[in-house]
Amino acid sequence: MTRVLHTGDTHLGYQQYNSPERRQDFLEAFRTVVEDAVADDVDAVVHAGDLFHDRRPGLVDLQGTVDILRVLADADIPFLAVVGNHESKRDAQWLDLFADLGLATRLGAEPVVVDDVALYGLDFVPRSRRDDLTYDFDPVPGEVAYATLVSHGLFEPFAHADWDTETVLEESTVDFDAVLLGDNHKPDTAEVLDTWVTYCGSTERASASEREDRGYNLVDFADDEVAISRRGLSSTREFVFVDADLAEGEGVDRVQERVRQHDLEDAVVIVTVEGEGRPIAPAAVEQLAIDRGALVARVNDRRDLPDEDEDVSVSFANPDDAVRERVREMGLSNAALEIDETVRSGDLADSNVRESVERRVRDLLEDDESSFEPAPEREPGDEDVTTVADQLAGESGTADAAAAESAGSAAADSDADTAAAANGGEIEGETAADTDDSATADTGNAATGDGDTDADTDETTDADADADTASLGDFA
Description:
The protein has helices spanning 20-40, 59-74, 94-100, 165-171, 252-260, 282-291, 319-330, 334-344, 353-367, 388-395, 399-409, 412-422, 455-458, 472-475, and strands spanning 2-7, 44-47, 79-81, 105-106, 112-114, 117-122, 146-152, 178-182, 188-192, 195-199, 215-222, 225-232, 239-246, 268-275, 296-301, 313-315, 440-442. By secondary structure, the chain is α/β, with parallel strands linked by helices. Helix 1 runs parallel beside helix 2, helix 5 runs parallel beside helix 6 and helix 8 (334-344) runs antiparallel to helix 12 (412-422).
């Protein structure tokens, strides 16, 4: 009998939920699989793609992978693998590097024989290139009793399928007894054209939708039969799924009550909200879970909530009025007011502002130093308090002049500071930019969930752009 451990979709390097602990979890799940393989003394470990989560794994992830693969090498157990869509690169693959190190074998059109089983490989091929793909494999060696294909993709008759399994089996130059697959994170097995086709599932939960226990397959070849069994991984990070179906009138209190019913210590907590209840604030629920010891907490509010009934009112202050008010508050000297006029003049090119201000300051210093004395303390509302903006507004009788004044007021952010410096006082770090606070917008917002989705589909690498080959000889 020949026993093969079939695993895949380990997604090493995936820092799920931006959690370093989750990144380590993916590596430890792979380590557990390898340790099980050594303990069971299997004849080979077959990996069906997506060893890494993306094509640019970090150095720590590479070092951890090498360390784990050496455990297999020391036990004289071959690691046979294909390239998945997440890790696929345009040129050489990471799998090739491990092969060069003597730690792995990349499967392809030429069979790799383990006892009486010949194993072939078919890397992930983008859907756009499959029409030109030929399933040409080297002949099965005469002493071999079984032929097995290892591949990565979404094959029929399984969920989300876009690859015709019957076409692969009918057009292949080899009659396969089993097809060992990766890409679909849910384990499943079916028989297609008298051939067993099976997914091993992922070794860690890569999305909130993957509620089933994680694990791998054991494939036994004996007595002209192929037997596929499932083994779970009990040491993976616990996920706690909290489902809250809110009745009408129920809200965040009911969701928090449901969360308190679970032991959350060091777990990833996924709260799913459905029903007819009130809108909830996800942050409050997530914080409760964290306070109760959860590693990560996420709220998915799956309800299609109606918009709030409150009217939305948006108002904007007149920027010129805001500038005038700010200038009045600063109690600027006459010199500062003249500088204010110079800076905001619509007739002066921006590139000439600095030179004009310097020239005007020199003239004022020569002609009348008293012009730099601070203005007397007066209230902004005093009738005798005027600004250059007031003067410009008073002198302009046309809409064009008013528009020019509005455009010029934008420069007051920095110019008020300049004028304050000329006034002999310190620059306060507060300028006419403070007028932004006078623009207000009152809106009614309904709280919604994070809308967590399947990571396997959300973060899938677009291998179409990176794949250059369309024949098995190229993929070998």
